[in-house]
Amino acid sequence: MSPDPLFVAGALVVDDDGRIFFQRRSPARKLFPNTWDIVGGHLEPGETVDEALRREVLEETGWQVSVVLAPVGEYTYTGDDGLDRHESDFLVRVDGDLSRPRLEVGKHTEFRWLGPGDLAVLDESREINDGMIRRIAEDGFAVLHNLGM
Per the record's keyword annotation, is Transmembrane included, yes or no (predicted)? Predict the structure, then answer.
């Protein structure tokens, strides 16, 4: 096991109604299979967090990040693969057809836009990810509220 954590960039994509975008990871995924997740992934060698954030949004949805609204939080966790990760998450707005994301084939199977009252669906995978995605969503909505959105 590497002593240094893997770095992850995460995007909480926000729509005009103040909802956040979530996608379900495919059952074939090694890490957190069949769970709801935000957009994001590991930084590639030499890549900044901002570069990774923009690349992951494009790869996972087909959308382009138009503005990074605010940081949401920093999260550290150990995946079920035994590797430590440090995740930096941000609220973002995107350009593109928000009703038709281009989900990565084989990686994600469905998507939902959730408001602050819709987060119970994220509890489906509480045992798998220790409720982390729900906590990230709650943090995201708190930041969104503080921004007056």
Answer: no
